[in-house]
Amino acid sequence: MSFHQVMLAAYNDMLNIKVSLGYTRDNYVSHIPQFIEFCANKYPTANEITKEMIDKWLVSRPFNTDNTRRLAIINIRHFARYLNAIGKCAYVPSSEYNV
Q1: Could you tell me which of 50, 49, 54 has the C-alpha nearest to residue 74?
Q2: pLDDT by residue (tens digit) across 73-94?
Q3: Which of 3, 25, 38, 54 has its CA 20 to 30 Å from the CA of residue 90?
């Protein structure tokens, strides 16, 4: 499986778990798929999510507000934690994360 396929499968699994726990699916659909697409296009041979990937994605995105950017980082943090929990390697941005 390609990096893109692995990340999309993990993302869908994470979504299903979040929804089963009562979270709203909409909270996680705006940023993570775009991040996965970016990483798959820019880093097709990757096998983990790195700080560099997150930094470059954040710089490439025209966020309308600081709050939108903050929410994107929170979503990526949730996804990275999930990846680590299932045995994948992913950089987890801190709550003070800034590029």
Answers
A1: 54
A2: 999 999 999 999 999 999 999 8
A3: 25
Compute φ and ψ for 90, nearest 5 degrees: -150, 135
This prediction's pTM: 0.91
Residue carrying structure tokens 């680590």: 84
Tell me the per-residue pLDDT of 21-72, one tens digit each, with 9 for 90 and over. 998 888 778 899 999 999 999 999 999 999 999 999 999 988 889 899 999 9
The amino acid at 21 = L
